[in-house]
Design a protein that fits this description.
elongated, 2 helices, mainly alpha, 51 residues
Length: 51
């Protein structure tokens, strides 16, 4: 389950970067970025290893 969360976090960051560079992605990309950052922070706080 944790690998799936990490995968989604990386995908969301990539989508945010594409949207930020494309200027057309709008508000939803920034919301997805916040969700990705929260998922990464939860992994760090819980102390799980990233494989």
């Amino acid at each position: 389950m944790s690998n799936i969360l990490y995968f989604f976090a990386v995908v969301l960051i990539i989508l945010w970067a594409i949207g930020f560079l494309g200027y057309n992605a709008g508000f939803i990309i920034h919301v997805l970025l916040i969700v990705a950052i929260i998922a990464i922070l939860l992994r760090i706080i819980q102390g799980r290893k990233v494989y």
